[in-house]
Amino acid sequence: MQLLQNAGQKQTQTKEQVRRIINEYMGRKLLLDKAHIEGIRYYDTYRKNGGYEAAGKVFKTMSPDLVVEEVKKSGLRGRGGAGFPTGMKWSFLAKPEGVPRYLVCNADESEPGTFKDRYLMEFLPHLLIEGLLIASYALGSHSTYIYIRGEYAWIPDILEEAIAEAKQNGWLGKNIQGTGFDLEIYVQRGAGAYICGEETALIESLEGKRGNPRIKPPFPAVKGLWQCPTVVNNVETLAAVVPIINIGGEEYAKIGIGKSTGTKLISACGNIKKPGVYEIDMTISVEEFIYSDEYCGGIPKGKRLKACIPGGSSVPILPANLLLKTAKGETRMMTYESLNDGGFATGSMMGSGGFVVLDEDQCVVRNTYTLARFYHHESCGQCSPCREGTGWMKRVLHNIEYGKGKMSDIDLLWDIQRKIEGNTICPLGDAAAWPVAAAIRHFRDEFEWHVKNPNAAQQRNFGIAHYADPLPVAAAAV
Amino acid sequence: MAEEKKLFKVKIDNISVEVEPGTTILNAARQIGGDIVPPAMCYYSKLQGSGGKCRTCLVKVTKGSEADPRPMPKLVASCRTTVMDGMEVANITSPEVQDARKGVVEFLLLNHPLDCPICDQAGECHLQDLGYEHGADGTRYEFKRRTFEQVDIGDNIKLHMTRCILCYRCVYTADQLTNNRVHGVLNRGEASEIGTYIQKALTSEFIGNVIDVCPVGALTDRTFRFKNRVWFLKPVDAHRNCDKCCGKTVLWMRGDEIFRVTARKDKYGEVEDFICDTCRFDTKEASAWTIEGPRKIDRHSVISQGHYVGTVKPKDTLVEVMDGRQPRLLMDIHSVSQVNRPEIDLSKIDGPAHSDDFNNAKR
Amino acid sequence: MFSEEKLNKVKEIIARYPEGKQKSALIPLLHLAQEEFGGWLSPETMDYVGSLLQITPIEVYEVATFYSMFNLKPVGKYLFEVCQTGPCMLNGSDQIIDYIKQKLKIGVGETTPDGLFTLKTVECLGACGYAPMMQLGKHFREHLTPEKVDAIIAECRSKANAN
């Protein structure tokens, strides 16, 4: 809802203003600017290249409240998917006397299409640790936990090494830099559960329980880890705190358009020439992002763009025409607001920044089926709509994909997803419902084609070449 | 300090009620009572932390509070959402809620075996009631249903996992009434099941209460298994001096025989007091109990469909016919059945009697 | 039973949490136990972990059965966990899975008779940009092709022979 309300505000800026901002900040990198430096993973190199200066500045000149203020000014929004303003989240943290407060870093990156946090932790561990240090200071957390998905089995070693280095150099432990502030950072591995990316499920898991999301309220800001006030932030969000302190919140807020401030990591994958993690300032168009050599580099083998999931698997898929231009005919930009322009009817979401591109040969039904299978596999099973509904959707989609579907199945799918969405404890239900809804909304004829041509649907699991024809051919690279 | 506690004014389906701060919407609705009370399959007021899972009690908050009148964007679980002053809630007056509830019932029944004809819970099953009230008359699910092997968890308790709706009540019961929980929720998602992982008996003085809290026939009493239909039994309030529990129970009897013992349940199916396993499983002689009188089983239960109200005692002549033995029948079938008509002489019908024989017979 | 060294590690892990919250160490300890005791968690192993943390066995079973990384049955020495979710599917993970099946002559979830390889399909491992991919031990093997799969299998075989 919040995203929808914000959607209108982009239009308040004139084209000239937008262009000026684009010119001024074009290609600015705040998180990955040093990623290419050899040895940046290690403390010495990181420090030599301006590392821990933000933390030093905070300890010397800023009170915790001032840090929160600065983050508020920056307009930073949660990079995990929901896009909630980080400064606001921090200011909600309850501060009762005598009760410890905790900061937890959500590194349970499991959304299909998203692998940006892994990149940050693998190549720039000290950036995350510096961000955690500043955030812990601002929030008053003395034990901070990084909850990392279990499959990233080698990354805890990297992080723990970096933590040890930071400790040796007086950035962690007791009485950090003579300020009297104590902090320990611990790395905890998950064990294979997408649901633990949901903050209350993550807290449950961190407490050594099943990853069942809690029923809210109470929110973690009041009763979180071990029933103490807790803030859970995404890796990228916490890393972004470092440049915010370095350049100042106001300066950070100047980057981007409208309420999409700063830079965002986009992990691009699927049918593109250059899959990988890209840092964008939120001023470029989707078309530029896909076709420019600086980013994805276009679609391989001269194929055409069919569709794209712009923000991780749970956000609605968009066909090429609606991806590049909004329903109003405006150029779609890589911003929270623009990607959401038109709501779910004709728009999508920025989500976690997992940008999945489908070329003309790909089959939307099969793609939707694999996603439905994913959500079925990852449902925690606590509440009935998600537990029962995700499996049902998977099976109906399986039938359609393998040539056993009926026309009525398409309406049935629509009805199932409608009854899951909004009726579950946590957003996994919505995340399972949206991709199915969007696929039927925009590609209904492809589902019907599968039903009408059961044999062809069985033989060709990898798309229907003729099907991409009606799609507009995107303009060549910018 | 004689400070008066401020009560919150809440309107549910246009009926106003004043409740204490901290009350949930569901409990506020129960204070009003009647049709506007949302059904609850997983919430159990006596079990801390229960609720929020089954989603049958979803309601629409049309006005958040006096201070912040914005409606809530999604339907909320009324069992876990506390009221605010001036809150307005729509349950049966909201088509959206009815539609969502219908969806939830469909989900709950998706993998349910619908084996009511052979289920001991039939007649007092909350899922049956929910299905009658909110369910569709068919299923749209065309796939193989999820099944599990039935297991005996202990001498007295049978687990039919296939019937389970994963309300977690039995887990909370074991956690909160016993000091050694050996069963729990295993696996994840659709494969979730109640189990012990390794075949183990549930042993505890109070573990039998899991049968009472189970809203469906997933956990049933093995000492009562297939013994009788609950609606053929006569429930009476009874008590005994018990050193472990309150000793206040309901005996389910036929004649002098006690078929089973349960705790006393209120109209929402919640026990008034938990009872111990000795009372429940091991005290089946009528002489051990002081019978207080018949118990009215409330709310949409088959048992309450009027059969026990105005029961006609068998005529004395029957005793004569039965050679002085007391009949086991407690009601006169003629007063409730269309089929049994004494004027039809069964001996004059060729072969087995057919309903036509009764329907075509002249009255 | 853990070795002295591992028991010290257990102590260190438990010390990360406030007093009385040692249950939080359950998942790290299960990881440790799985590595230590043959790549899977037997009921005895789980009971042992429970006793280290002073929690009931069912609390351990509940958690161990929830998370997909804990193997509750013995697995082969080399566990191939091939991702099959959306982005990997777009890049041909289905063919890779078929190729491994054919090459090792096992189905998904099965182990080769020599006990060397187990094939498991998993959902998104967060390497979508390097698809198709699989996890082998601690590390990811990315941009899989039939040739790479051959090489990986050969590598595992030679490692096993060397031991």
Automatic annotation (TrEMBL), chain A:
| Segments forming a coiled coil | none
Give yes or no: UniProt keyword Iron-sulfur.
Answer: yes
Known catalytic reactions? a quinone + NADH + 5 H(+)(in) = a quinol + NAD(+) + 4 H(+)(out)
Could you say which EC number(s) this protein's record lists?
A: 7.1.1.-
Q: What class of enzyme is it?
A: translocase
PROSITE patterns xrefs: COMPLEX1_51K_1, COMPLEX1_51K_2
Entry's family note: Belongs to the complex I 51 kDa subunit family.
Q: What's the protein called, per UniProt? A: NADH-quinone oxidoreductase subunit F
Organism (species):
Chitinophaga rupis
TrEMBL record, chain B:
Q: Does the keyword Translocase apply?
A: yes
Q: Does the keyword Membrane apply?
A: yes
Cofactor entry: [4Fe-4S] cluster; [2Fe-2S] cluster
Q: Which InterPro entries match?
A: 2Fe-2S_ferredoxin-like_sf, 2Fe-2S_ferredoxin-type, NADH_UbQ_OxRdtase_ferredoxin, NADH_UbQ_OxRdtase_Gsu_4Fe4S-bd, Prok_molybdopt-oxidoreductase
Q: Do you know which SUPFAM superfamilies this protein is assigned to?
A: 2Fe-2S ferredoxin-like, 4Fe-4S ferredoxins
Where are the coiled-coil regions? Answer: none
Q: Which Pfam families match?
A: Fer2_4, Fer4_Nqo3, NADH-G_4Fe-4S_3
Q: Which GO terms describe its molecular function?
A: 2 iron, 2 sulfur cluster binding; 4 iron, 4 sulfur cluster binding; metal ion binding; oxidoreductase activity
Q: Which Gene3D superfamilies match?
A: 3.10.20.740, 3.30.70.20
* Renumbered residue ranges of the record's region Disordered: 344-363
Q: Which keywords appear in this protein's UniProt record, sorted alphabetically?
A: 2Fe-2S, 4Fe-4S, Iron, Iron-sulfur, Membrane, Metal-binding, NAD, Translocase
Q: 2Fe-2S ferredoxin-type domain: from which residue to which, for each copy? A: 8-95
* GO cellular component term, pick one: membrane
4Fe-4S His(Cys)3-ligated-type domain residues: 96-135
* Compartments where found: Membrane
Cite the PANTHER family for this sequence: NADH-QUINONE OXIDOREDUCTASE SUBUNIT G (PTHR43105:SF10), RESPIRATORY NITRATE REDUCTASE (PTHR43105)
Which family would the database say this protein is a member of?
Belongs to the complex I 75 kDa subunit family.
**This protein is called what?**
NADH dehydrogenase subunit G
Give the originating organism: Chitinophaga rupis
Classification from the root reads:
Bacteria, Pseudomonadati, Bacteroidota, Chitinophagia, Chitinophagales
From TrEMBL, chain C:
Q: Which SUPFAM superfamilies match?
A: Thioredoxin-like
Q: Which residues cross the membrane?
A: none
Needed cofactors: [2Fe-2S] cluster
Biological process GO annotation list? inorganic cation transmembrane transport
Output the Gene3D superfamilies linked to this UniProt entry: Glutaredoxin, NADH-quinone oxidoreductase subunit E
The answer, when asked if Transmembrane is one of the entry's keywords, is no
Statement: the UniProt record of this protein carries the keyword Translocase? yes
Q: Which UniProt keywords apply?
A: 2Fe-2S, Iron, Iron-sulfur, Metal-binding, NAD, Translocase
Q: Which GO terms describe its molecular function?
A: 2 iron, 2 sulfur cluster binding; active transmembrane transporter activity; inorganic cation transmembrane transporter activity; metal ion binding; monoatomic cation transmembrane transporter activity; NADH dehydrogenase activity
GO cellular component annotations, sorted alphabetically? catalytic complex; membrane protein complex; organelle envelope; organelle membrane
Q: How does the cofactor attach, per the note?
A: Binds 1 [2Fe-2S] cluster.
Q: Which residues bind [2Fe-2S] cluster?
A: 83, 88, 124, 128
Sequence similarity: Belongs to the complex I 24 kDa subunit family.
Q: NCBIfam families of this UniProt entry?
A: nuoE_fam
Protein name in the entry: NADH dehydrogenase subunit E
Q: Which organism is it from?
A: Chitinophaga rupis
Q: What is the lineage of its organism?
A: Bacteria, Pseudomonadati, Bacteroidota, Chitinophagia, Chitinophagales
